[in-house]
Write a structure and sequence with these properties.
Layout lengths: L6 H22 L4 E4 L5 E6 L6 E5 L2 E7 L1 E6 L2 E5 L3 E5 L3 E9 L6 E7 L2 H7 L16 E5 L2 H12 L4 H20 L4 H8 L4 H14 L7 H7 L4 H12 L3 H18 L5 H7 L5 H12 L3 H16 L1
Antiparallel strand pairs: 1-2, 2-9, 3-8, 4-7, 4-9, 5-6, 5-8, 7-10
Helix pairs in contact: 1-3, 2-5, 3-4, 5-6, 6-8, 6-9, 7-8, 9-10
Length: 312
């Protein structure tokens, strides 16, 4: 948005662009669930009714709620993601997500844009971060949406109907979008995660290691040494960003993977427990029940029943 607008004109333009983007997403996501698009970083979501909490792993990304609302839990932190705001997630975190506002007449519509941290690193030398910007206490944050961020997103979604233009202009719009994020409220958070040697980047490296080795025994001293931090510093900054300790994070990864294996009918409960790193199936069942509200087999049966109801 290059032209200078008065506050009232800017507000009207923002509302108009949001309405257009909402209409386009509703057309492209014509059925419930996640929808891939011609631009691989961009994913759309639709729900026609409120639902039960579901567990998910949120990777680095920008989230935009266009209609309806979602309640997102990260550890003990709760976020309401609704229109007129955008959500930035700087690292991989396990969350509980629930659609809390949706109907057939006004479905919950969301847009997710996966962030390329390497591209962010390339942009950083030419970006002047906001002087007042402070790094968020959490790797997941919500800020008010403004036109400078909405504009490149809308133009990118428009190009989904023009594949040849998308191929040429898509990369330019993606860089513009990342630039707008870096110069916005969440820029300092993204810059710290992306900057080599920063505490945020060290935590990000620890998260990457845990995701690749979640089924192995965790020794905090060794993990801290691996990312060039003291054990106490890693614990403090890891909790600040993810709202949980490294051990709690590993447990979430294990339980989410076990749930995925059981839903895919790839093994029985004892085998799933062993594959994700548990030595005791009974301990696995106890921790699974605490995390998901029911023992493994009952939880999986409940999820399949809910999926069948949504499909019908």
């Amino acid at each position: 948005m290059n032209e200078k607008l008065s506050p009232s004109q800017g507000s009207a333009r923002l509302s108009q662009d949001r309405e257009e983007l909402t209409a386009r997403v509703e057309r492209l996501a014509s059925s419930q669930g996640l929808h891939a698009t011609a631009w691989s970083s961009l994913t759309l979501f639709r729900a026609d009714s409120v639902g039960a909490p579901t567990c998910a792993m949120y990777g680095p990304g920008l989230g935009l709620a266009l209609q309806g609302a979602k309640q997102i839990l990260l550890g003990q932190q709760s976020f309401l993601h609704e229109p007129a705001s955008y959500m930035v997630n700087a690292v991989d975190v396990p969350v509980s997500s629930q659609v809390v506002r949706a109907s057939a007449e006004a479905p919950c519509l969301c847009l997710t844009f996966r962030l390329d941290l390497q591209c962010i690193r390339e942009l950083l030398p030419g970006v002047q971060l906001r002087r007042s910007a402070a790094v968020s206490a959490s790797g997941l944050s919500i800020s008010p949406l403004d036109g400078s961020l909405l504009d490149p997103l809308l133009r990118l979604v428009r190009l989904l109907d023009a594949p040849r233009d998308l191929e040429v202009l898509g990369p330019l719009l993606e860089r513009e979008l990342l630039y707008r994020l870096l110069t916005g409220e969440q820029g300092a958070l993204l810059a710290q995660i992306a900057t080599s040697g920063s505490q945020g980047h060290q935590v990000s490296r620890a998260i990457d290691w845990l995701r690749q080795h979640y089924d192995e025994p965790l020794r905090i001293d060794e993990l801290a040494a691996r990312v060039n931090m003291s054990a106490s510093s890693l614990h403090h900054h890891f909790r600040a960003i993810t709202a949980m300790s490294p051990l709690q994070y590993q447990k979430q990864l294990r339980l989410y993977e076990a749930r995925r294996l059981l839903l895919a009918d790839q093994c029985d409960v004892a085998t799933a427990a062993h594959r994700v790193g548990y030595e005791s199936p009974s301990q696995f069942s106890r921790e699974y029940s605490r995390a998901f509200g029911a023992p493994p087999l009952r939880d999986v049966a409940r999820l399949r029943l809910a999926d069948a109801g949504s499909a019908a």
